Amino acid sequence: MIKEITGDILMSDSKTIIQSVAPMDHFDHGLALSLRELYPSMVKDFRHYCKIQNPKPGEIWAWGGVGSIRIVNLLCQESAENSRGGHPGKASLSYVDHALKDLAKWVKKENIDRFAIPKIATGVGGLEWEDVRSSIYKNFESVSVNVFIYSVYKKGLKATEL
């Protein structure tokens, strides 16, 4: 099931939250910034992972935190490390689609029954929401998982997911 909702993704009942970032991202905008503030060890682990593994856009990196929370980072943008001023490059729909395909495989492998996802790659990434939305539906309409798309952000509002 895929359900689009309004609310604050940080108040989600889902134990798995998805976000999009770039390799070597600084986590300094939007949801990434909020997650950095809540889970500083995630950012430290991500930076270490990037230095050791040199991940490419289109891949995913999953992190598990205290209280069984999982944050899955979809690498949808060019690396922040090699760009001007250290800012991530723009996202591409190809990277988004590859990352979502990897996410679908990961969800099956890890037996994830639900996850929350925002309008990935549309803020700093610069993609059009309708294109990204179509890719989410294409990659998850036949996967046995409850997908809660936080398509409208309202700070402090707990959404009804089911």
Name a few traits of the molecule.
162 residues, alpha/beta, Leucine Aminopeptidase, subunit E, domain 1, 3-stranded parallel beta sheet, 3-stranded mixed beta sheet, 4 helices, 6 strands, 32% helix, 22% strand
Write the topology of this structure:
Blueprint: E1 2-7, E2 16-21, H1 30-38, H2 40-53, E3 60-64, E4 70-75, H3 93-109, E5 114-118, H4 129-140, E6 146-153
Parallel strand pairs: 1-6, 2-4, 5-6
Antiparallel strand pairs: 3-4
**Spatial strand sequence of the major β-sheet:** 1-6-5
Question: How many domains comprise the coordinates?
Answer: 1
Instruction: Provide the β-strand percentage band.
Output: 15-25%
Count of individual beta strands: 6
Examine the coordinates and then state which fold CATH places here, giving the name of the CATH topology. Answer: Leucine Aminopeptidase, subunit E, domain 1
Structural class: alpha/beta
CATH superfamily membership: Leucine Aminopeptidase, subunit E, domain 1
CATH class: Alpha Beta
Mean of pLDDT: 94
Q: Taking Cα atoms only, what radius of gyration do you get, to the nearest Å?
A: 14 Å
Q: What would CATH call the architecture?
A: 3-Layer(aba) Sandwich
Helical content stands at 25-40%
Biggest β-sheet, characterized? 3 strands, parallel
